[in-house]
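Bumping my old thread because nobody answered last time. Still need a sequence for this structure:
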């Protein structure tokens, strides 16, 4: 098969790495890709939001199967456009991508179908939002309804902080905002493959959203992750599947907008059980890097079974241990940072036991490898225990020669401290 992966981050590097291992992959393309992906795939200079450009390329290159990494093209209808052109694609169509594209849509669906989630109010003006916030009290969570690249959420510890967030969001005309109950507990990301009808448990993971050690500092796209999550018992996992994932799959099918792809649930393990706080309709980044390291089965089989509605017959084999990834970012991230600084010695990092370095934001200039984004590398490792995976990943990090980069030194601390 000729395969096209859409995206250019660490998630897409991991997807390309896993897909390239499949004996059925003849030719691999990636749009737009990055310097690491270029070692595995032919990179195509088409941006992820250029829907017409992607479809035109896929047709001209006789692409048989497309795997869409990021949420923006999914919400824009890339899968719909590919389907209309007769090309099979992994990912939800635009209507099903509303599970990530509108937080209010998910909340309404959760309440209608009895899916456990926190109380909320959808608001279209600031006065209404602030009145509800005053009524509920702090802590409280304020969210932009639509996609916001991880920047639309304020977990407000005081009323003033919440009012500042609504003032900010409603400064944009036509803004829609969701005010949500603050859920207390441990956060878990839960991934399931969904073929429209069947949901297949894929994996649990835990991200580290804050930039600094000990979960300090501002939020980021994710500074590291590990999988599976020891805090998630088999019982809790079943509860998530039975009370959150499958009811959502059924609800989408009943509404005439069946979901196909990977459903990524943001779950809070509250004292009253697992509660949903958001859905994403794609793999997480850097969670995907960890999942691809752990997965032993052919990923292409899983992606195709998802598209073809055969997940009830699919079995997955996993590495028995733990996978963990540490993100290396440009100094200054998530604020202003320098681009174009040189990275060396990735071969030494890749030579460490159990380690693989995925590129997130890199480009090549001659034979020099340069940083080209905020999150630049994800150093991933598998090990028998979380402590071993962590030690291996940091051995990889320490082998990288990049004076202008930094990382958190405590990825996996919750799981390590539990042992
Ligand atoms: P998001 O950008 O939507 O992933 O949200 C960013 C972070 O906000 C999440 O990782 C959670 O830590 C937190 N969060 C979102 N919704 C809630 C909620 N209802 N209660 C508590 N924390 C939340
Ligand atoms: N790492 C979180 C996300 O991909 O949304």
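Sorry it took so long. Here it is:
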């Amino acid at each position: 098969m000729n395969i096209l992966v859409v995206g250019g981050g660490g998630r897409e590097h991991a997807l390309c790495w896993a897909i390239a291992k499949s004996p059925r992959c003849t030719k691999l393309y990636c749009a737009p890709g990055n310097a690491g992906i270029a070692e595995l795939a032919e990179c195509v200079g088409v941006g992820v939001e250029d829907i017409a450009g992607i479809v035109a390329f896929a047709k001209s290159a006789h692409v048989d199967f497309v795997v869409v990494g990021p949420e923006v093209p999914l919400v824009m209808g890339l899968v719909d456009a590919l389907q209309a052109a007769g090309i099979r694609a992994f990912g939800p169509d635009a209507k099903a991508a509303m599970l990530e594209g509108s937080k209010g849509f998910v909340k309404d669906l959760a309440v209608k179908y009895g899916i456990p989630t926190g109380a909320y109010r959808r608001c279209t003006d600031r006065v209404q939002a602030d009145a509800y916030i005053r009524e509920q009290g702090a802590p409280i969570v304020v969210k932009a309804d639509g996609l916001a690249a991880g920047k639309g959420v304020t977990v407000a510890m005081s009323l003033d902080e919440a009012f500042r967030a609504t003032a900010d969001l409603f400064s944009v005309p036509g803004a829609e905002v969701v005010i949500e109950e603050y859920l207390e507990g441990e956060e878990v990301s839960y991934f399931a493959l969904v073929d429209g009808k069947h949901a297949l448990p894929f994996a649990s993971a835990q991200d580290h959203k804050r930039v600094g050690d000990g979960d300090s500092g501002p939020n980021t796209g994710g500074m590291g992750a590990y999988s599976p999550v020891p805090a998630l018992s088999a019982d809790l996992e079943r509860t998530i599947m039975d009370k959150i994932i499958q009811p959502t799959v059924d609800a989408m099918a009943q509404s005439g907008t069946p979901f196909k792809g990977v459903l990524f649930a943001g779950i809070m393990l509250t004292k009253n059980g697992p509660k949903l706080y958001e859905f994403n309709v794609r793999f997480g980044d850097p969670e995907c890097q960890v999942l691809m390291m752990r997965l032993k089965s052919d990923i292409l089989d899983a992606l195709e079974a998802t598209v073809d509605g055969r997940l009830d017959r699919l079995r997955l084999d996993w590495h028995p241990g733990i996978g963990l990834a540490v993100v290396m970012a440009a100094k200054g991230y998530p604020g202003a940072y320098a681009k174009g600084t040189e990275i060396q010695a990735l071969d030494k990092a890749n030579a460490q036991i159990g380690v693989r370095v995925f590129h997130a934001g890199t480009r090549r200039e001659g034979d020099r490898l340069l940083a080209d984004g905020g999150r630049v590398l994800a150093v991933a490792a598998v090990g028998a225990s979380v402590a071993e995976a962590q030690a291996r990943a940091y051995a990889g990090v320490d082998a990288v020669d990049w004076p202008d980069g930094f990382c958190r030194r405590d990825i996996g601390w919750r799981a390590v401290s539990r042992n």
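The radius of gyration is 21 Å. Let me know if any region looks off to you.
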